[in-house]
Amino acid sequence: MSRAPRQEIFTHSSGVSGNKKPQSTYSNPRTGLGAPAPPVPATGLYVDTRFPVQNMPVQNDLVWRRPKEICLFPQFIVDGATRMDICQGVLGDCWFLSAMASLSLYPALLDRVVPAGQGFQQGYNGCFCFQFWQYGEWISVKIDDLLPTCNNQLIYLHSASRDEFWSALLEKAYAKLKGGYSALNMGFPHEAMVDMTGGITEVFMVASLPRALGSFLRSLLEKGALINCANSQGPLEKSNEFGILFRHAYSVTALETVKSTIGPVQLVRIRNPWGKAEWEGPWSDNKGIEWHMVTAEEQRRVQRIQQEDGEFWMSLADFRQNFELMEVCHLSEDTLSEGDVKKPWKCTSHHGQWTPLQGSPQYNLTLLEEDDDPSDPELTCSFLLALMQKHTRQRGTLLSIALHIYKARDHGVSSRESPLLSSTKDQGFQQRPELVLRGRLAPGHYIIIPAIQETNQSGEFLLRVLTEKGNTTTAAERAGVATDSLTQPLSPRLAGLPSTNEARDLFVKHCAKGPYCRPLDLYNLLTEAISKGVFAGSEKMLSLEHCKSFVVLMDSQGMGRLDLTEFQALWDKLRKWTSIFITFDKNKNQALDYLEISPALSAAGIKVDEFILQLISLRYTEPDMTLSFPGFLFLLMKLDCMMRKFQSFDVTGTGMISVNCRQFLHMTLYN
Known about the structure:
This protein starts with 62 loop residues before the first strand and ends with a helix. Among the domains are: 130 residues, Cathepsin B, Chain A, CATH 3.90.70.10; 141 residues, Jelly Rolls; 171 residues, EF-hand (Recoverin, domain 1, Orthogonal Bundle), CATH 1.10.238.10. It is α+β, with helices and mostly antiparallel strands. The strands form 6 sheets. A 6-stranded antiparallel β-sheet has the order 6-11-7-8-9-10. It has a 5-stranded antiparallel β-sheet with strand order 16-15-18-13-20, with no helix packed on it. A 4-stranded antiparallel β-sheet has the order 12-19-14-17, with no helix packed on it. The radius of gyration is 28 Å and the shape is globular. The chain has 18 helices and 22 strands.
């Protein structure tokens, strides 16, 4: 979960504070940004010189200490790693801590992330290793054990036991993976759950969950799913009348039917990663008089503990009313080995790629055995598909993708035949790092198509299929589906802009100062390219400001320049939009009339209403209300980036996003 910008729904600090001494043992006077120093010869302990300490969220006067400098007898893990070892510090990474709390419910999962045999006794050298899942494989992250402190207290994640450090070190390793502690200040639990399990995540609106919520949650927990929830219907740092914090991630850790004097009651157990600040409504620890109706023996059976530890119980009705979002991470039998997981998914993974003009890859899905669900009157087979784009950070862009499922036929699928299931039904093609499609179909043979909207683009992907029991997937031959039904032929491209190979030559010619294209380089490059094509003369309408926008909108590193990969991604967009411009410039005057603008935008996949169209005409057209060729490219680049930004923040697909002030300024001032 490349790491696109995220909506700051799950971000909350625990309000920890303290006096700080002006001291630091992990700083570099050359930078003033807290860069790591080389190992100290006197100790010989390992120092991670690659840990990114720039722009620390809490940086002034902190002291980097090793656990042996914090307490006399530090331990890596004390009495097993549990959810009670996760107490949030001043860093707003409750989304990550919530995922850790869910992970701790399954020791086998945690053991993979936190390898055994590490500690502060025999063999200790200051070095610790952790493992995270990235694009279908597990990678090792090595760190030192220098941790940020204030007044000899850990300022970030810590355990309830002062001498236990596995959770604080895991947080540091994850920070290194993501680019530093500051990178953890916002996020969603499902991102961390995927990185720590290799699972497949879904995001649900609680209001849309089935009426039989208890059965739904029970089936998820029985399959070993990790579940987190949140309420984003209020301001950060505030809570509702019952103590549920807004924009804060909680873990769902159990569902129980509790015997009471008024009959059985279904309760859900939830944990706040702070280790405090609990629910104060019915069935709560402090005000839950309902527990008087439950025997002490029954309370022990469900492991109910009446203390301020961040864990509490609530009814399903209260869960619906107090939480808005629920994130579920599905795990497979390859990952889970816990005895109490009754119905784990079976996962099949396929690494593939999209190749220009060759159609989409195809995979056979065979469903033979129906679900073991007595409450389901239909004989169907459940499955989950997850399509993850690879290396999106290096590409600097997300492709528009979709998932389709067709009935397998010997003669192929007719171009007039609609898919049985498709992710495009409600939202069309989507620019997401990972796309998940949940489905239920009758037993039979089907074809899965991981599709790409722009068939002239290339990219790599990981397709994962979760099924029950004996249902399987395999790579399919192209003959399984008629190729003309799935990929539309490209319209012929006139010589509006040079080919990709010719553009690469222009890149080398105009970017002589190094392997990067800066705004002035791009201006000179585009001026030459346009002047030698069918739009010769319109290069006079091109401005340096246009090229500045082209660069920053495709710049994934925030350096104000494009490398060759980013430049090629930009060029692919410009050529595609050039083809659209040629098609809709009916009178061939190198400009789009007002009435031609809206259909041209629709052809590019951007639909606008009349009000937005009026704003476009006021801001981007010439005095005669026409849109020049460079202006059209500039407009589409802006709209494309704005839509991608919105979609990257709208991970729940609700059509609404929330951003903080810094994110807003970054989007408007730079991007």
